[in-house]
User: Fold these one by one.
Assistant:
Number 1:
Amino acid sequence: MIRQMLVLIWNRKRINALIMLEITLSFLVLFAVVVSALYAWKKYSTPLGFDYRDTLSVVLIGQWEPHHAGQLKRAAEAMRTMPEVSWCEASHMDLFTKSYWTTVLRHNDKPTQLMVNRASDQYHQLARIPVIDGRWFGPQDTGGDYEPLVLNRRAAQKVFGSESPLGKVLPHSLGKFNYKVVGIIEDYRQHGDLDPLGEYGFRRYVWEENSDTRMRQLMVRLKPGTPRSIERDMLKILKTNLPDYDFSISELSVARESYMRKSLIPLITSAMLAVCLLLMVAMGLLGVLWQNVAQRTQEIGLRRAIGASTTGVLVQISGELLTMTAFSVAIGTFLALQVPFTGLFGNIEADLMVGGITGATSVMLVLAFVCSVYPAWLAMRITPADALHYE
Amino acid sequence: MIVLKNIEKIYRTETVETIALHGIDLEIEEGEFVSIMGPSGCGKSTLLNIMGLLDEPSAGYVHIEGTRIDSYSDRSLATLRNHQIGFVFQSFHLIPDLNILDNVMLPLIYRKTSTKERRERARTALERVGLQSRLHHFPHQLSGGQQQRVAIARAIVGSPRILLTDEPTGNLDSQMGGEIMKILQSLKSDSGTTVVMVTHDEEKAEQTDRVVRIFDGRLVA
Ligand SMILES: Nc1ncnc2c1ncn2[C@@H]1O[C@H](COP(=O)(O)OP(=O)(O)O)[C@@H](O)[C@H]1O
Ligand SMILES: [Mg+2]
């Protein structure tokens, strides 16, 4: 029975090659869709690594000059005296926008690109960023021959692998000074919930009287339930201390939602495209498989006439298709495993590969099973006499 | 051997109702070579299909070897077809993608036999129809007469007690038809196989033990 099944598959190699090609292509499309969906879900379900609630962002609009550093420091101090304000700290990069700032860290000649930000000594407390190893930077880092650096877990892993990152010294990309890794945080996903799960680092911003280091944003954590009218009082303090600037104040929770809405549009569009693509592939595949079995109605009639039982025929027909599907899926899996090496889609993480291959494989097997058993079953509802005359 | 009791067969479609067989009573003895004759459309194939358990009568009963067939969806029907009955069709019905040997072995894969034994028996059956040199050919590489001999080999490979043939010479020229007749006759005389042959060739019918005539779905004396 098995030998004969394989003989039949082999002898029908020309038509079967087409069917297998169709299955392999469908598998790859399905794989791509599953991986993208899993990736989107993974991004969405991964914590941001900080708390955006009750927080205002104050962006400074104007031309930075060294003496503005002192003004900024006093503005922050003045804000902290307001009873509604629990924290006021500096953090350079906008949250929930497209903007980013990158640098390259070199360790053992291996470069790693990461996004960086610059923030003040208490910012991790304001943003409630858990430090999972080492510490956030602080006054003890002043005067050292290095600049302190806090990395997220992914960056530490990528740069140092299994080595312990704490205390490691890394040269600045232009060789101006050395960084020293002082702490590890879980994450700081500045682009929000759909931020690619990337490498991230914080550099230290020091409050000084004069500084060439431009700082463009103050973060303010308010006591819960503070009304927005506080922004008027804040503006007054800001204007008094930083007379050369205009200010743009926004609530992080609002920014997050509107950015999310904006990022969802392309996501929904591609999801809809994916669904259309899947439907087309499914229809094509269904047609091919269906026809393959329907064309064999006479053969089914003959097999029953010479003594095959209904189950015998079902096992044979679905066995053939499942064998071919298994082959095609194996080829598809081999091809899918090459995708990360092409570098076209970045580094696809192992769990996504496994999920994509498992998902696509099971769908293909179920589809092959249904597409062989159901039409074969239909062909067996008519008598063998009718099946033999079926055109 | 084969007993048909008051068989009716009515084909119903949305618009028409065709009475293909009407009140057929027929007994065929063990080892008999019977031919069924009648004009086209009179119900010969329908009758043969009912004898061969390929089709269900609308009324009446079929007895094969003394057992009455009650259920037409049963798995035991498959076993009965496989072990007791061999079928030869006018249009051969070989599987084009299997070679001759595999085609002939087909009935045996639904039995518990070793591959070796299947091969042996298939070879023997092919020898019997004079095709031992064509084992690895595919059906399309053979002439019509040869294909029909393959179909006969397939029908007898499982040593059935009954061989049902539906116009086995209908698609063949007279010389090939003659060869097929010889094979059928030898089956009857050598193995005592009961052979039922549908034909509308008077000459061929005369070579059999008994001629059963049908007209418009009824037996005529
Ligand atoms: N599956 C079917 N559906 C409807 N009518 C059928 C079917 N098979 C046969 N018939 C009709 O039954 C009658 C007998 O057919 P058949 O047994 O094939 O005749 P024969 O073999 O004697 O030429 C014919 O009128 C034919 O049209
Ligand atoms: Mg007929």
Number 2:
Amino acid sequence: MPAKTKRSGVKLRLDSLTPQDYEELSKPFVPSRPVLKNCLRAFLSGGLICVLGQGIQEAFMAIFDMTSKEAASPTVAVLILISVILTSFGVYDKMAQWAGAGTAVPVTGFANSMCSAALEHRAEGLVLGVGGNMFKLAGSVLVFGAVAAFVIGVIYAVMGWGGSHPL
Amino acid sequence: MKQLGSQTWEYTTRPVILGASAVVGPEEGEGPLAADFDFIFDSLEMGEKTWEKAERILFEKAAQLALIDAGLDQEKLEFFVGGDLMNQIISSSFAARKLGVPYLGVFGACSTSMESLAIASMIVDSGGGSYALAGTSSHNCTVEKQFRYPTEYGSQKPPTAQYTVTGSGCAVIARNDGTGKGPFVVSATLGRIMDLGLTDPFNMGAAMAPAAADTITAHFRDTGLSPGHYDLIVTGDLASVGLPIAQALLAKEGIPMEQTTFYDCGLLVYDRDTQKYVIAGGSGCGCSAVVTYGHILRRMKRGELKRVLIVATGALMSPLSYQQGESIPCVAHAVALESGGEGL
């Protein structure tokens, strides 16, 4: 191969571009998240899921003669089942692109995060795949849920508000 | 082979692209370039039990079809240069098992298409071999699984997000026998790493635009050519966000891109109006590979394009690096192609 030719010595303007300059230059071309639209969609879709949950709860109360407290657990189970079915049929992720937080925040989102991880990692086996990855996304919800509960518990204890359940 | 300037190789013998193939998944098959692909799988699973195996099938199919297109017996193939986006580039290495030839695995993220083509052309041009295969692949679901979230997880993607192309493109590069039948590989400009501090993996177009602009600028500086020399200059996967930024950077650099048609493979492979789920456009190793080996080579053979510069862009981050808050280093490699015929 021939000897290395001399570097042409023309310094590119790009060389002197700083991250700050670049941010300024690229900003007009980068569309931002449509926050207001996303909020509205989340409100509508999340609300709709809650209405559905309420309907299921009312149905349990009417058909099986349950109290609202008794109907709560089977209602959550039905919502989880619906979410898992929609996830398995490949529908939930498409709904979520429209709904955003509306499908992520309710219990259906939690079920979707576990179900999708379980499906995805089934190929790596039941123990290391499904077992090891199922809480990949949901795990942090559990961890920070427990941490938040602990902090609130401490505050209650210190303030002497008591810890009795209002039921 | 000759070095031009500091970043460009000029292939003095002008290796020939003897045959090429583009194999894609169902979504690309619904896109505007469907007629230019050699094989379209009708499901993302491709009859396999795992996404990773499906990507391998995609790659193997593309390699097989490229050899058929070249009219070359597999025994005559001498080298294989390939890479993909998976950890330890398993798709190309596992596909290489079927080829039974010396193999160089390369990683340039989505720039792998042109990186592998540049290296395969170098092998042939330097007399290191007569036939080399260059190829790359990506699969939407393997990439989602490795770099983002489980494929069925419901997360809302921002308007800057891109959609990984399910596709594989391969090309058989052969020594130029002097018959004038192209297309020829003329030169390659290898890119430097550009990192302007962007950290958002959902905005890769903006992260990669400086790398594309840098390599294009270097190409014209090294070769002394101007954009008007080419009928078409395409970037790999800058999509709707990155392409206008690259245009702005090149304008700032004083490169007269208006002399030519400057576009992006990520915008060619899908119809963003009807295929809304692609958001900003296509991405992935397969993006520039299937557009180049499927669409662009066909246009060159039809005589619609004579000289083309493909600038494949790659974002070289890993899931680990962005979780640790690191910015995204990017690279772009350019390869110049020229169709055969008179006046060369």
